[in-house]
TrEMBL record:
SUPFAM superfamilies in alphabetical order: Carbon-nitrogen hydrolase
Protein name: Aliphatic nitrilase
Region feature (Disordered): 297-324
Entry similarity comment: Belongs to the carbon-nitrogen hydrolase superfamily. Nitrilase family.
Pfam families documented for this protein: CN_hydrolase
The organism's place on the tree of life at top rank: Bacteria
């Protein structure tokens, strides 16, 4: 049974809508601030760098070309100077960081979650398996290879983005790998108050069902940023509220008062003994499972658009074959 404690931080801040450089500065400043508060594990919002594509929620497809191209121009390549800067910050502070980015891979964008270990190594790069609703105009699909739990300095960490948490088999894939800390990311400042209410229910349920800690970060937009995304007050309503930055124990309890408004960094200590306390009574992938009745088939192969087969050069023909 683990007896250590991990100090976790969930960051609710606004991106810099002008581009990658400004948002990266905010990321590095937040790592330093959380590190100064003793944080060992830090989670940022969904696709925080350079920013979540809020435009796709309020603009019709015919008007999305310009902002989509702007997002592509500011998106993150993995690896890049931006990922190296985060890696260096992790190594300097000895912290594990989960960062959401818009990842550009040639002509496509992906909703990508990056997990950096405390030594600066990139432990996991995963892509959201199914972008939600309006997001399908912006991002491509991820694959089963990213549904992976990785061992880090703070424990076994898994991650999902936003409505992936409504795919029970995606969650179960991480549960079968015995995640101890689950990193969740949502855009925030979207849909309205009901979105925040739904996030809370979902985060608490996963903590209970998986018997793990959940550290969830949602983003935030200022009124000036909302007005810059769309001038119509009626549509601006869809870019407010929807924030629920929270840290939840395996018993489904909030370990700190959730952040639902404004910017801030939520800090809480994770008593790892609570995992065994919860799973002693209900281990969804152990003594409470019935794998002979219900099991998950998980294809972990990376999706590749090209499969090359190389054949050896033929042997030189024999004299008899040459005479034929």
């Amino acid at each position: 049974m683990r007896t250590d404690t991990v100090r976790a931080a969930a960051v609710q801040i606004a991106p810099d809508l002008s581009g990658r450089a400004g948002t990266m500065e905010r990321v590095l400043n937040a790592i330093a601030e959380a590190g100064d508060k003793g944080a060992e594990f830090i989670v940022f919002p969904e696709t925080f760098v350079p920013y979540y594509p809020y435009f796709s929620f309020v603009l019709p497809p015919v008007q999305q070309g310009k902002p989509h191209l702007e997002l592509m121009a500011e998106a993150v390549v993995v690896p890049s100077p931006e990922t190296q800067a985060v890696a260096d910050a992790c190594a300097k502070r000895g912290v594990v960081v989960v960062l959401g980015v818009n990842e550009r891979d040639h002509g496509s964008l992906y909703n990508t979650q990056l997990i950096f270990d405390a030594d600066g190594m990139l432990a996991l790069r995963r892509r959201k398996i199914t972008p939600t609703y309006h997001e399908r105009m912006v991002w491509g699909q991820g694959d089963g290879a990213g549904l992976s739990v990785v061992q880090t300095r703070v424990g076994r960490v898994g991650a999902l983005a936003c409505w992936e948490h409504y795919n029970p088999l995606a969650r179960y894939a991480l549960m079968t790998q015995h995640e101890e800390i689950h990193a969740a990311q949502f855009p925030g400042s979207l849909v309205g108050p009901v979105f925040g209410e739904q996030i809370e229910v979902t985060m608490r349920h996963h903590a209970l069902e998986a018997g793990c800690f959940v550290v969830n970060a949602t983003g935030w937009l200022s009124e000036e940023q909302i007005a810059a995304i769309h001038p119509d007050p009626a549509l601006q309503k869809g870019l407010r509220d929807g924030c629920m930055t929270c840290i939840v124990s395996p018993e489904g309890r909030h370990l700190a008062e959730p952040l639902t408004q404004n910017e801030g960094i939520l800090i809480a200590d994770l008593d790892m003994r609570l995992i065994a306390k919860r799973k002693r009574m209900m281990d969804s992938v152990g003594h409470y499972a019935r794998p002979e009745l219900l099991s998950l088939s998980h294809d972990t192969r990376p999706a590749r658009p090209r499969h090359a087969t190389t054949f050896p050069d033929p042997l030189p023909a024999t004299e008899e074959e040459q005479d034929v």
